[in-house]
Amino acid sequence: MTTQTSTATAKRPTAQIYFPASVKNAGGNARPQSTSQTGSKALEPFEATILEHQALKERDDFELIDLTLAGEKAAFEILVKRYSGSMYALAYRMLHDPDDAADICQDVFLKAYEALESFRKKSSFYTWLYRIGTNSCINHIRKNQAQHHIEFASYHAFKEADTLETLYKTELQEVVNDAIERLPEKQKATVMLRVCEGMSHREVSHILKCSVGTAKANYFHAIRNLRRFMKNYIAANEDDADVIPSSLLRIGNVAPPSMSLGMF
């Protein structure tokens, strides 16, 4: 059955983010409906006028969430536009595939929309969204572990002191790539969030749903494992020995390719 809207539904464009059609409840307010109830045929793009966007842009996240739950579809469009770039960048850095990153980005916002009523505002929407995104990437990696390979185009080395040194050696880069690829999913995610996103241990703990102590432990073990995985290279290249053992390699420094969102 085709859902009726006030405007004609256009053919789905490439990289369009789609969400479930709003369903009127008994009180007349629109509510997000899960795909298990609507099915894929009920998915339709959000449509918002320029005036609606301009009026909503100044709202904070919590206000936009309340408006979405009250049936204001344009409010969630603002949240998508506000965080789609960050979500796509996170997915690209973890998967290093633009198509997979775009798929994950769509999936993250769809999951967030469907679960919006369960968001209790105990953390920021940003943190809640990053949790969904990180878990989606981890699950994707697990499903594709045999074929998955991350290539990191460039990186920076952070010494434990205040000195920032940049490494551009192709051979070393390959060693680093292989070492990071061997990290367990949670350690890899922790390094991504700490180094690429600049998050604190507390923020990482919220996203990965673990204690601050566990987040710190994951980070510690990740760095220790990276040093262990690279010890043979370090032993064979004494010139780099003073840099690598005390360094945390910055992952995915190059900006991901842009993703076009058809609704904006």
Automatic annotation (TrEMBL):
Location of the RNA polymerase sigma factor 70 region 4 type domain: 176-226
Pfam families in alphabetical order: Sigma70_r2 (PF04542), Sigma70_r4_2 (PF08281)
Keywords in alphabetical order: Sigma factor, Transcription, Transcription regulation
Residues of the RNA polymerase sigma-70 region domain: 79-145
A GO BP entry: DNA-templated transcription initiation
Tagged with keyword Transcription regulation: yes
GO molecular function, one term: sigma factor activity
Family under the similarity heading: Belongs to the sigma-70 factor family. ECF subfamily.
Entry-linked NCBIfam families: sigma70-ECF
PANTHER family: RNA POLYMERASE ECF-TYPE SIGMA FACTO, RNA POLYMERASE SIGMA FACTOR
Protein name per its UniProtKB record: Sigma-70 family RNA polymerase sigma factor
Species for this entry: candidate division KSB3 bacterium
